[in-house]
Amino acid sequence: MCLLRHTPNMKTQALIAYALDKWGYKLSLDQAYKAKCRALQKIQGASKEYKHLRQYNEEVLRRNKNNTMTIKTNACQKGPIFEIIYVS
Asked: I want to staple 39 with a disulfide (CB 3.0 to 4.6 A). Which of 1, 21, 45, 59 is the partner?
């Protein structure tokens, strides 16, 4: 899923080649297509869930100046992709 998060427009054939190279398993075209669709749905759903994360970060820091909060994202054509959050 991490691969598709960074390259969502990856062709199904490329995904088949990646699986063969990484795990030594040859996916059928149907398997690769279904797996890609499921992964993209999860990725897109996750981005919707985290859309208010920056506002949450600001509110936490406003309420308690001693807290530390870091949000790591990767740049993408459609906007930043959430990677990890650190709260202390």
From this structure: 1
Exposed (0-12), middle (13-18) or buried (19+): which is 16, by Cβ within 10 Å?
Answer: buried
In this predicted model, what pLDDT tens digit does every residue of 37-57 receive, in sequence order? 888 887 776 656 566 777 888
Q: How many CA atoms lie within 13 A of 33 on its CB side?
A: 3
CA distance 28 to 47: 29
Per-residue tokens: 43? 């990725």
Angle CA 29–37–5, to nearest 5: 110
CB-based contact 29:42 (threshold 8 Å) = no
